[in-house]
Amino acid sequence: MASSSPSPGASLDEWRKNATFDGGKMRVILQGGREKLSLKDEIWQTLEKDTLFKKPNRQLSLDEVRLLTHQRWKKVIEYGFVCDPYAEYEKFSALLEVLEEFDTALQARVTLHSNVFMGALTSMGTEKHAKLIEKGNRNEIVGCFALTELSHGSNTQNIQTIASYENGKLVFKTPHIGAMKVWSGNLAQSATHAVVFAQLNVGGKCEGVHGFVIQVRDEKTHRTLPGIRIGDMGEKPGQWNGVENGWMIFENYSCSPDALLNRGCELTDDGRYVHSFKSDRDKKSVSLGALSIGRIGIVGKGVNACRVAATIGIRYSAVRKQFGPPNGEELPILSYPLQRRRLLPALSAAISIGFFQTKMVDLFAQYMARVLSGEKSDELGELSKEVHGLSSCCKPRSTWLGVNALAEARAACGGHGFLYISRLNELRDTYDPSQTFEGENNILVQQASNYLLSQKKQGVLSSPMGSTDFLQSRPCTFTGWKGDSIENVISAYEWLLHHTLNKTEKALEERKRRGEDAFTARNETQIDTAHPLAIAYAELTMIKWAIEGVEEIEDEKCRCVLRRVIGLFALSQLQPHLDLLYIGGYCSGPEFGTRVKEEQLSLELSLSPECVSLVDALAPPDFALASALGASDGRAYEHMVEDFRSREIDRAPFADDLVRVIQANKDKAKL
Amino acid sequence: MASSSPSPGASLDEWRKNATFDGGKMRVILQGGREKLSLKDEIWQTLEKDTLFKKPNRQLSLDEVRLLTHQRWKKVIEYGFVCDPYAEYEKFSALLEVLEEFDTALQARVTLHSNVFMGALTSMGTEKHAKLIEKGNRNEIVGCFALTELSHGSNTQNIQTIASYENGKLVFKTPHIGAMKVWSGNLAQSATHAVVFAQLNVGGKCEGVHGFVIQVRDEKTHRTLPGIRIGDMGEKPGQWNGVENGWMIFENYSCSPDALLNRGCELTDDGRYVHSFKSDRDKKSVSLGALSIGRIGIVGKGVNACRVAATIGIRYSAVRKQFGPPNGEELPILSYPLQRRRLLPALSAAISIGFFQTKMVDLFAQYMARVLSGEKSDELGELSKEVHGLSSCCKPRSTWLGVNALAEARAACGGHGFLYISRLNELRDTYDPSQTFEGENNILVQQASNYLLSQKKQGVLSSPMGSTDFLQSRPCTFTGWKGDSIENVISAYEWLLHHTLNKTEKALEERKRRGEDAFTARNETQIDTAHPLAIAYAELTMIKWAIEGVEEIEDEKCRCVLRRVIGLFALSQLQPHLDLLYIGGYCSGPEFGTRVKEEQLSLELSLSPECVSLVDALAPPDFALASALGASDGRAYEHMVEDFRSREIDRAPFADDLVRVIQANKDKAKL
After folding, report:
1. Concatenated DSSP letters of A112-135
2. Has residue A78 been placed in a domain?
3. Rounded CA gap, A325 and B16, in Å?
4. What is the distance between the alpha carbons of residues B187 and A317, in angstroms, rounded to a whole number?
5. What pLDDT, in 10s, does the model give residues B301-312?
6. Residue A27 belongs to what H/E stretch?
7. Fewer Cβ atoms within 10 Å of its own Cβ: the N or the C terminal residue of chain A?
8. What element of type H or E holds B265?
9. A661 to chain B: closest CA residue
């Protein structure tokens, strides 16, 4: 075999020549601006030079990956990319983006301490905890967050761990196996401290769920403290073995009452519990408010999943040739409409939700600054509800899209997509849990429909962030395709939102009239009503904010191609709602549905010459993606063969045994 | 913590009490009848007693799993469950079902030799190969099948490996890296022989793709023979590391011309190639006919995937409690309509496609018997086309459903579903490649639409298996819901098939009129036309054959509940086509779509008390499923805790290093 023979694949550079825009400019736009991009690139370059960050071409064992994650975490701290996460917010967020794109587990190792644990201390603690916060910022302790229990995840208000205030001490108990703390990341092996949620018991009375910060391991010996038992949750799919999810059982663990994260409440020296919460809701908003920041972050995980799915899927499809016209050359499979349908919507989602996410993060940062400043205005109350409602449906929408994009990209790459070195299954498994953590998606979306229902009931037609402004519009049925695709899609969504909102409201009223309790009525009105309402709310807001983001772009060529990208996202999101649009009477006859389908096909065709360069603007560096199929040089075949050649086999380890079996079968036949 | 505390979960036995049918009778029905069930149970019992078949609660390394698969394969042979796969067909098929449910890789280890390699020898070879067939049947050789090349999978006619007939010898060459054989299971470590496909070159003329059987390793030393290089493809997801997929490069490997699998053709001693094929199509039907049996088998993989998804998802959801009415107890999550929607369609698919598959396998066996007897009738020709057309869309439909069912079940089990010991991600990854092997699904379905188009063109309105009989009906638009759900669904499908068939045909004609070649025209008319046509064809046939199977059941209670199951399958399959039914004009206004959705909801409610017992009738034994969440005793929490407790950690292996890092950070702060 001639090793100098030409590559069997097509050239990515040929595809790149066809793009209508400047790749460098597009990369700046899609990576969050010049400043953030240069911060990210600097970190990427450092990591790329360090062999510790070279990805192996096989799955590591649990012990191997734990050690490697520990070593990488240590190295990230040593590099000192960021000294103070709060003062250097831009730098810290660039670092987290890089780590997330490099390895989810490593990102989790950092954020579980710096964002989740420290965030809880900051938002729920008081000056009593200032010293611990300082130590945390300097990495002199390792923190974890322990809320979920074996038998309670979504229903956090019903957790069963008990913290009793007895004789001036807080005593933690795990009353039964259902109450053991589970899934706490960093807990199994590294944590010295934990934020723990428990039912606070004072003088025989349960005061409800509260947060506490406790020490779990000795700082010098790193052994578990008496009264606590800690263990590992075992193996998990994807990159998650790198995260030490732990379980914890309390056997009368006792500590100072200063452990209570006492913003708004206090344990007095004479054994009482006092608080300044106006309502139960008020209390919950302190103790569990820390969670909504997580959901907004996870929208970004969906974006990332779509990015890597599109990157690997599109690059490989641009290179892979199969079949062709009679007597012609074989064509790259990306030339086929069906293959574009499998990959281009994921690309459009990565870009569109990316724009949405940028705006959402900005608005959320402004919101949090107002909350932390102690503002208590009505408008802030409204904003708080909107943040909660919108994040509760956008996190599900984004993560579903991301996981599905990776699954589809795997299959679209055919058999070779199934190789470990394609990374697609590992990535799918890596993003899979984003669908269930920080709120199982199907339960979470119910928060969004509840929010819209309560807004409507109270007659609140607009919202601080503008996401419910559609309530002010008068929904119109379809009378003909007018203007561009996005306008038509938005009109259909606005009608659909009114329609499903009214339908849900009526169904709930009807059930209540029949004597059903509110809980049952809500459960029975999810499918075909509240559920699609919440999803449509997420999608419409994503589309609107994405197009807003695009209109602000100065470079005309980039803006022009990105408009088409958002158009494809809008059309592909609307498609699954066509049935409800017809059944509900938004449209009838062939025009609307046919047009939606035709416009999507035509945008996919028009984006075909752009998509390789769009992917270049989104993709992480090759060493981080580490996909033989998705490398930016387009030499997918060569990368596979390089790996294969390193696995040449002369004889299997069990060859002697096999020869014996074969001989025995021969001997048997002779009898 | 009191270890005697009651389980936090609900009881599976309470659910079981609500079923309206006899569980034992149902198990006989759903496991293929009394005889097959007792054959399967016998094998299950033997394996369960053998510790070699105990599943570890962690992922094994590549080397570990290879060795274990080899040992298990050896043990299966030693047990002698089946002496002659052909003479004891029923027993052999029971064995394969058990192995598939136990571990896909082990099943592959057996079938790649016994079915794929031996099947190719039998169907393509002649008396020249009788001796090798005998040796194969006695496991004196280990066979593999090498068709796919690095740059050619779907387009098998364009493979590049060359077999030249020179000086009385066949000489094999791999002309470039794109032509290396890849993905050949059993090749990397075990195979002594391979069926290899190559372009046959005689006297400078290429005679097209032919099959050959060659020896690849020395039988005594088990070393690779000169002129051949073999290696491993590296790691793969799910259970597939147990399969030694290999690559192979030929460097002028030379062997006797008897290697040619010469049914219908011959290499003469004077260096010529002669054949008795009437046409190119005739030749292909010999050399590649061996593949359609594989596709029908893979329909069963989809069924199995749905089975285990439903088993784990439903059992855990019946036990897991979360939320509840105000002041009431928490409810098992299976009580919520949204949770049922996520799991019951998978259960209905497992059962419905199971009935379809049983009939399909029977008909295929009859067909193969006629082919092997040498029959050459027109009716057999028609049957051959139908087998090809139908298997080409049912394999995709079934495997898509199976993989999606596992993904959905994982998320429906929440966080705990993500534990390795739930097995759901491993199973999803295990079934994932069924979507791309033996024909990538999206390419394969095109064979089905091509078949329907050619039938219509030729005016053939009925077919030997009856699957195209709908062509005889006059499609009617919807005029009101009449009779039971299934009748309504079938009418809608028949209309949809006529509609999409006409639409595809017209679109193709229009494109040809505009001068497009047939290849391009076909590619451009997949989305929204040929693709949904093929899918609908698969679904309608599955529904019809499933209901036929159910009507033959004697026990009335079983029949009654299974009718509802098939009804749910029918409605849930039709739902995604509602848009085309409205756009195309089958229906307008709310009635049809609303009714389809209402009927599905109501069947899901009515099957809620049945589903745990239905799952019992389908499930593999606990030791084979090996899922902490899906155990038949319903003690999901206890099984998880047992595993967790075995992973109690006092101190991480890297604790010393961690303490040093923390101390260093403290020292830094003091400076």
Report:
1. IIIIIIHHHHHHH--GGGHHHHHH
2. no
3. 58
4. 28
5. 999 999 999 999
6. helix A23-30
7. C
8. strand B265-267
9. B74
Residue-number span of the structural domain to which A256 is assigned: 142-281
Residue B273: both structure tokens together: 């190639």
* Residue A135 is assigned to a structural domain of this protein: no
* Rounded Cα–Cα distance for residues B184 and B243 (Å): 9
DSSP state for residue A414 in the 8-state scheme: T
Write down which residue in B235, B252, B281 finishes a domain: B281
- Give yes or no for a contact between B286 and B605, defined as CB atoms under 8 angstroms apart: no
Q: What span, in angstroms and rounded, lies between the C-alpha atoms of A522 and A504?
A: 9
Q: Please state, rounded to an integer, the average pLDDT across all residues of chain A.
A: 95
Q: Is residue A288's pLDDT more than 50?
A: no
**Minimal CA–CA distance to B28: which of B20, B38, B19?**
B38
CB contact under 8 A, B234 and A651: no
Q: Do B1 and A429 touch (CB under 8 A)?
A: no
Query: What is the DSSP secondary structure assignment for residue A33, as one 8-state letter?
Result: -
The average pLDDT across B246-269 equals 96
Residue A606's contacts (CB-CB under 8 Å, 6 or more residues apart) are A564
Question: Is the residue at A586 inside a domain?
Answer: no
Q: Is the pLDDT of residue A37 over 70?
A: yes
Is B406:B428 a contact under the CB 8 Å cutoff?
yes
Residue A462: per-residue pLDDT: 84
Nearest residue of A to residue B517 by CA position?
A325
Facing A1 at nearest CB: one of B176, B222, B597: B176
Pick the closest to residue B368 from B294, B426, B310, B455 (CA basis): B294
Token pair for A56:
């192996």
Q: Is residue B596 part of a domain?
A: yes
pLDDT for the residue A123:
86
Q: Which of B139, B178, B336 sits opposite A637 (nearest CB)?
A: B178
Determine whether the annotation assigns residue A185 to a binding site: yes
Q: Which residue has the tokens 């209905």?
A: B348
pTM metric for this prediction: 0.97
- Write out A490-554 in H/E/C secondary structure: HHHHHHHHHHHHHHHHHHHHHHHHCCCCHHHHHHHCHHHHHHHHHHHHHHHHHHHHHHHHHHCCC
Interface test with B, best of A71, A235, A245, A667 (most B CBs within 10 A): A235
pLDDT > 80? residue A424 = yes
Interface A:B, Cβ pairs < 8 A: 423
Q: Cβ separation of B323 and A155 shorter than 8 Å?
A: yes
Please tell me which of the candidates B155, B414, B668 has its beta carbon nearest to residue A440. Answer: B414
B649 CB neighbours in chain A (<8 A) are 188-189, 224, 230-232, 246
In whole angstroms, what is the distance from residue A258 CA to residue A169 CA? 9
Choosing among A133, A138, A140, which should be mutated to test the B contact, i.e. which has the most B CBs within 10 A?
A140
B579 and A594 within 8 Å at the Cβ level: the answer is no
State the Cα torsion B463-B465-B468-B473 to the nearest 10°: 90
Question: Cα-atom radius of gyration of chain B, to the nearest Å?
Answer: 27
Inter-chain contact A232–B647, Cβ cutoff 8 Å? yes
**Which of A626-657 are b and which e, b meaning 16 or more Cβ less than 10 Å from the residue's Cβ?**
bbbbbbbebbbbbbbbebbeebebebbebbee
Assembly ipTM: 0.97
How many CB atoms sit inside 10 A of residue A23's CB?
14
Counted domains in chain B: 2
Among B281, B316, B339, identify where a domain stops. Answer: B281
* Burial environment of residue A24 by CB neighbours within 10 A (0 to 12, 13 to 18, 19 or more): exposed
pLDDT of residue A291: 65
Q: Could you say which of B182, B442, B519 has the minimum Cβ distance to residue A338?
A: B442
With an 8 Å Cβ cutoff, are A176 and B232 in contact? no
Longest dimension (CA), chain A: 94
CATH code: domain of residue A188: 2.40.110.10
